[in-house]
Amino acid sequence: MTELIAALLSASGVWLTAQRLMMGWPISLLATLFYGTVFFQAHLYADTVLQGVFSIAILYGWALWAREKQAGGNLRQDRPSSPADDLPARPLAFNRAMLETGFFLILSILWILALQRWSDDPTPLLDGGLSGASLLAQLWTARRHRVSWLLWSGIDVIYTGLFINRSLTITALLYAGYTGLGLYGYWKWKR
C-alpha cells in the first residue's frame, strides 16, 4: 500500500511539474517520504538517502520557482497568464553542463564505493549511479533547464529494470511511465 501511495503522489508531482505548476513541489515532497520507506525496505539504500536529498532539492526548487514567479509577475498582459509565461524554460550552457555532470559523476562513484563497502545493497553500481544522475536531473529541473527531461527519461528507463529486478512492480510501472512523461516534459517546456 505504501508503494502505491508513493507512486500516485510521485506521478502527480511530476505531471504538475511538467505543467510548470507550483503544486508539483509539495506533492513531490510528500512522495519522497513514502518512497524513502519503500526503498529502505527493498535494501536500496542510495535511493533511500536520495529521497532525503530530494526533499532538500524539492524545497530549493519550490523556493526558486516561487521567488521567480513573484518577481516576474505576468509577462503577457494581453491574455490570461499560464505557468509557462511566468516560469519559462532556460537554456543550459555547455560549460556549466559539463562541470555539473563531472561533479555528479564523482559523487556517483563515491556513492557506489560506499555502498559496496558498507551495505548489503545487491546492485550498488546501479543504485549509486542512478542516484547521482537523479540529483543532477533534479538540479536542472529546479533551474528549469529543458534538457533535464531528457536526462530523466534515460534514468527512468534504467530504473524500470532495476525495480523489476527488486520486485517493486508498481514502482517499475511508474518509472516506465516516467520515461514518457520525461519526453512529454521536454516537449512541453519548448513552448
Short note summarizing the structure:
With 191 residues, the chain is mostly helical.
Outline the structure in words.
The chain crosses the membrane at residues 44-66, 97-116, 170-187. This is Nicotinamide riboside transporter PnuC. It is a multi-pass membrane protein. It comes from Bombella apis. Keywords: Cell membrane, Membrane, Transmembrane, Transmembrane helix, Transport. This protein is mainly α. Helix content is 78%, strand content 0%. It has 8 helices and no strands. It has helices at 2-18, 24-41, 45-72, 83-86, 94-118, 124-142, 148-165, 169-188. Helix 1 (2-18) packs antiparallel against helix 2, helix 6 (124-142) runs antiparallel to helix 7 and helix 7 (148-165) runs antiparallel to helix 8 (169-188). The chain is globular. Mean pLDDT is 90; it is low at 74-80.
Mean pLDDT: 90
The count of DSSP E runs of length 2 or more, i.e. the number of strands, is 0
Judged by helices, strands and strand pairing, the structural class is mainly alpha
Q: Biggest sheet, open or closed, and with what strands and sense?
A: none
Question: What's the alpha carbon Rg, rounded to whole Å?
Answer: 17 Å
In the predicted model, the low-confidence regions spanning at least 5 consecutive residues are: 74-80
The portion of residues assigned to helices is over 70%
In N-to-C order, the SSE pattern is HHHHHHHH
Distance between the termini: 37 Å
Total helical elements: 8
Shape: globular
Q: What share of the residues does DSSP label as strand, in percent?
A: under 5%
InterPro entries: NMN_transpt_PnuC (IPR006419)
Family: Belongs to the nicotinamide ribonucleoside (NR) uptake permease (TC 4.B.1) family.
Subcellular location: Cell membrane
Transmembrane segments: 44-66, 97-116, 170-187
